[in-house]
Prior knowledge:
single chain; alpha+beta; four-stranded mixed beta sheet; 4 helices; 4 strands; 44% helix
Amino acid sequence: MNKLSIPKILKHFELGIISVLSLSSMDIERLNKRHSQENDMYYKVGFGLSSRLLSFRNGVFSLEIVVGKKWSKDYNSTAIELANVWKKTHDELSLAIACKVFIVDPNSFEYKKELIQNGIKPGYDARKGVIFNKDYLN
Length: 138
């Protein structure tokens, strides 16, 4: 019978959690496609707002949000709303403890609209962080 020592069991357990709290690039593309078809259409059509998942590592996922003209909420509210939408609608992200949000606002400068239309990624206008459970703070 194969006996594992306590440190080996803990190490194996830790590795298992880490693997659950990260996604491969293929999984991210699949999630982005599913989110675009199921959830993002509401925001795109209604508010000109789009979002996509950039990464998910160590329990933290990163989103990129492009704000449209019809969207009237500030960057903080936008980050909180869309981070929670992503977490609640995708089981793969349900164990996330936090979200990094990168916001592009083409309304801030006219040239950004042209860059986005030509497939060029402009710089971010804001960077926000969302912690999902208040108990993680001291």
